[in-house]
Amino acid sequence: MVLMVGIITLATVGWLYSPRLFVVYLQRIQGRNFSVGQIRTELVQGFQFAWGRGMVWAGLLGGLAASGTSYWLARRIVRPLEEIETITRQFAAGELEQRLPNYDIPELTQLAQSVNHMAADLAGVEQRRRELVGDLSHELRTPLTIVRGYLEGLADGTVTAEPAVYERLARETQRLQRLVNDLQELSQLESGYLPIHRQPLAIGPLLTSVVARFKDQQPSDAPVQLVLDCAPDLPQVMVDPERLEQILVNLLTNALCHTQVGQVTVRACMQSPFLWISVADTGEGIAAEDLPHVFDRFWRADPARDRRSGGTGIGLTICYRLVTLHGGQITVESTLGGGSTFRFGLPINTESRS
Q1: Parallel, antiparallel or unpaired: strands 262-271 and 224-230
Q2: C-alpha 302 chain-centroid distance
């Protein structure tokens, strides 16, 4: 269509304008003591014939050249698009290893890079899905095996029906319930369906209440001391109090479970633009190569996946999601055998400061 419009425009303008320009040229020649009046008509007709014949050949050859060039350019565009379509069909079939190369056309290269990035994200999602299914199966297998073994023993009389047996069964069912609740909450966090009700909050009373609750659960001669270091003049933060308490409980529980002897310190300080809260322990610590995986689902520093703490392996993941959902940041510093420090920052209530 573009080629035809160009040819028609060229022919129309040339047919209407060229003869008039030729007549003006003849008039200039006649002004030089040369008479062309008798042959003017024949000259114009001859010019129109020559011009028309030249336009036919020019249009034919130009059309062939333009068509060939258009076909070549179209193939340069269509061939990569066909390759992209083939690769995306493979992605839809679950083959996420294929990648697209760079092309001569920058826009197609950008499209190919976007498709490759999408494939990498899909591969990551698929890998995490497989890991989640495997980890979940691993987490469920142990308590279910224990419950089944005790029930079969009670049924055939090999296990005596004692209060300790029922207490063990109750602990395993509580672990299952805790795992299901944590998974449901994590799913709501990642899908964006968990409601967050932010409000201005003074952090001091909440920290005091949470730390006092944990102290009440410890015996007076406990080998681990729980210490609170909180300045009295800290600004308010914009948080959901219930979710903040959940973060603190998860971090404190994790610190106490991995500290046999020593101290767990809860500290709050101001460092713009966040109010930072840290939970530091003197426990077993985390190896440097394991730090990037601390907030992954079902991750445990113990390769044997020891469950003596009764944790589900999702608590730190939930903390990370909750802090991020509040617009804050959470970090971890640790050395193997030297304890760990989990530190998260919450946005300050600017209205209260003004």
Answers
A1: parallel
A2: 28
